[in-house]
Amino acid sequence: MATDIASLDNPVLGLESASKPLTPGQLIWRRFLKHRMAVAGMISFACLLLFILGGSLVVSKQQANAVDLQVRLSAPSQEFLMGTDDTGRDIFARIIHGGQISLFVGAVSVIISVTLGTLIGGLSGYFGGWVDTILMRFTESMLSNPQLFLLIVLGKFIGRNITTINIFGITVSGSVLIVICVIGLTSWMALARIVRANVLSLKELDYVSVSKSLGSSELRIFFRHLIPNTMGVIIVATTLGLAGSILSEAYVSFLGLGIQPPTASWGNMLTAAQTFVQQGSWWMWVFPSTFIVLTILSVNLMGDGLRDAFDPRSNRHM
User: Fold this and answer.
1) What does pTM read for this prediction?
2) CB 273 within 8 A of CB 13
3) Phi, psi of 158 (to 5 degrees)
């Protein structure tokens, strides 16, 4: 009762007691929701995931690879919602299973890239000295390796020699492994530099000195204090890296040197379509390219929103 009377006498006190301070996570989420295009990208990407992952429960891989020359190059209809390709395969089914491969390649390659970039950049910034010199020179040497060239060469001379592999119960062409490894191992350098810069500034703060004085080990300080406080940069890099990885897989497969048939991907579906562009079979390239564009656009919009949300100096304040 006394608290209520005090609140009435002092409106500011009542306002402060009624409103609880927001956690950093809640502040980030609110700033993200202020970014309308980012929210639209998140909803669009969620719908794409629902279509691709949910569709695989209805449409089997056998249906996606089933050849029927009697219905080859059929236009979209009630029987074939997105038409058929030059061998009579259902494009709707191949869009679903090709999307799984494209997203799988993007996700795994980004996990490899982010892990390497975080560890190398973090260790370089934290330990400094000769560790920093060696790791940064290695990073600079990796920047001189052209990703597209490696994808083309390894895909041509190694990927086709690996017949098939089994990943989580899914049988795919061996070229998938080559594409994942090359993209993942050649796209971590920019993140490593950013993480290094963040760790260099964070390790000079008071809470790190206090942790050292309390006897915390170097690994504990690194993984419990420095890396968690760099998660904003890492999350943004992961989001934007996913879009880049999907696009890299698409254009290498389009060149015929990435994911090899019969495994479907959006990129090699465009490769099969390029011969029939001038023959009026528009559905063979319109649907794969539309899904590539929607996916890249959605992920990039989410990345922009996350970048603003994690930046406390963003104009979208609460």
Assistant:
1) 0.78
2) no
3) -115, -45
Mean pLDDT score across all residues of the chain: 79
pLDDT tens track for 291-317? 988 998 998 888 888 888 876 555 544
**Angle in degrees, CA 255, 258, 264, rounded to 5:** 100
- Using the CB atoms, write b or e for 84-119: b if 16+ within 10 Å: bbebbbbbbbbbbbbbbbbbbbbebbbbbbbebbbb
Cα–Cα distance for residue pair 267/275, rounded to 1 Å:
14
Per residue in 126-160, pLDDT tens?
A: 888 898 899 999 988 888 877 777 777 776 666 56
Instruction: Name residue 170's beta-bridge partners.
Output: 167
3-state helix, strand, coil in the chain (%, to 5): 75, 5, 25
Q: At what angle do helices 231-254 and 266-273 cross, to 10 degrees?
A: 30
Q: Which domains does the chain have, with CATH numbers?
A: 26-61+83-310 (1.10.3720.10)
Measured distance CA(35)–CA(43) in Å, rounded: 13
- Sign of torsion, CA 180 183 189 195? negative
Write the single-letter amino acid at 254: F
- In Å, how far are 5, 80, 88 from 270, measured between CA atoms? 72, 18, 15
- Residue type for position 122: G
| Residue found under tokens 């204090």 | 225
pLDDT in tens, 41-79: 999 999 999 998 888 888 888 888 888 888 888 888 888
| C-alpha distances in Å from residue 312, one per residue of 22, 24, 32, 203 | 14, 10, 12, 20
Tokens of 47: 């719908």
Compute CA distances 18 → 1, 30, 187, 239, 268, whole Å.
Answer: 15, 19, 48, 37, 58
The answer to whether 221 and 209 have CB atoms below 8 angstroms apart is: no
Positive or negative, the Cα torsion across 281, 287, 290, 291? negative
Contact 247, 189 (CB under 8 A): no
